Amino acid sequence: MNKPHIPKSISQRLASYHLANLSPAWVELAPNTEQIKSIGGKWQAYFTKQPKVNTNISDYCDTLQGMLPIEYAFELPHMQLKDNTYTDIIAFEDVSGGWLLFLDVTNNVLELQQYQQAANELHLLKGQLDRTLSRHIGHEIAQLAVDGDIQLNTEGERKIISTLFVDIRGFTNYNEKVDAQEVMNTLNAYMHEMLQSILDNHGIIDKIMGDGIMAIFGIAASNNNHVEDVFQAGLTIQQRIKALNEKRAQRQQEVLGVGVGIATGEAVLGILGSHERRAFTAIGKHVNLAARLESNARAGEILLDEVTLNALEKTPHHRRVNLELKGIGKVDVYTVVLD
């Protein structure tokens, strides 16, 4: 069935009504600077005094210190610039320079806080499962539970999945010698590439641990075998990190590599934690193996277990390596030879 056509006048009216409720304000920045070129909209909702042209926007908004000039589009959701006021800050650039869009989302944030507080008092009742679990474990996992694809309880569900661990190499040393704001910007840049690679290949983010990520494959809907998805995610991570490093090297910024570990096997999926704080996770021997593989992987390397390698439709160019893994012992693993 064809979607109904919405007349242009109605679309414009809806857009105008929605934006009016968000009290938009915008700041135009001079190219490659944080210097204000022009300002418009309801700036009073976000600043105690009007920002002046030819001054730096970070002088009026501490949140933006170290974030500019804009190197790529980014969003800062739910920033508290004034008491009891929450703001989405959206940064992007075009041919004329950089732009910052400020949107008042106070009502949305206060409503979300009320839902979160209520969710802590609710049991996992079926009729309210989606809303409640979304506060704890994310909408995607909650929706899978509502659809019956996974069971979420303290007993857990056994399932064959693939697990990926990825971690930035040398980040601790980098952190100790560089300004904290620069460290945060660098971490966000690398995390963006790694997280997007996982999500693009149907992975679920289990947890973020400092400069590392654990992701699981075989739960989210996909047209592929989850082993193909996890391997493609590992390849994409290394490819995107390589491209990022080339750009950073051109700007004379320090480059960092990442190591990837992947293993496949049976795991127990379920909810861990107390009534106040719960988290979805996977537990199993292969999960521990994937973590050990990641800790042994060098920068730019992907280490696979034998189950994952054998399950791939097309065997990648690889070398077998015998490693002594902490808590596991000697294991034959496979390092993928990247192009």
Layout: helices, strands, pairs:
Elements: H1 8-21, E1 25-29, E2 36-41, E3 74-82, E4 85-94, E5 97-104, H2 106-119, H3 129-137, H4 139-146, E6 157-168, H5 171-177, H6 180-200, E7 204-209, E8 212-217, H7 226-250, E9 258-273, E10 278-283, H8 285-296, E11 302-304, H9 306-311, E12 318-325, E13 329-336
Parallel strand pairs: 9-11
Antiparallel strand pairs: 1-2, 1-5, 3-4, 4-5, 6-8, 6-9, 7-8, 9-10, 11-13, 12-13
Describe the protein:
Helix 6 packs antiparallel against helix 7 (226-250). Strands 6, 7, 8, 9, 10, 11, 12 and 13 form an 8-stranded mixed β-sheet that branches. This protein has a 5-stranded antiparallel β-sheet with strand order 2-1-5-4-3, covered by helices on one side. Strand 9 (258-273) and strand 10 form a beta hairpin. It is built from 9 helices and 13 strands. The chain has 2 domains: 8-107, Beta-Lactamase, CATH 3.30.450; 150-336, Alpha-Beta Plaits (2-Layer Sandwich). Mean pLDDT is 82; it is low at 122-138. With 339 residues, the protein is α+β, with helices and mostly antiparallel strands. The longest helix is centred in the last third of the chain and has 25 residues, at 226-250.
Number of helices: 9
Net shape: globular
Strand and helix order: HEEEEEHHHEHHEEHEEHEHEE
Q: What oligomeric assembly is this protein in?
A: single chain
Separation of termini? 46 Å
Number of strands: 13
Notable characteristics:
339 residues, alpha+beta, Beta-Lactamase, Alpha-Beta Plaits, 9 helices, globular
The gist of it:
The chain is an alpha+beta fold and 339 residues long. 34% of the residues lie in helices and 30% in strands.
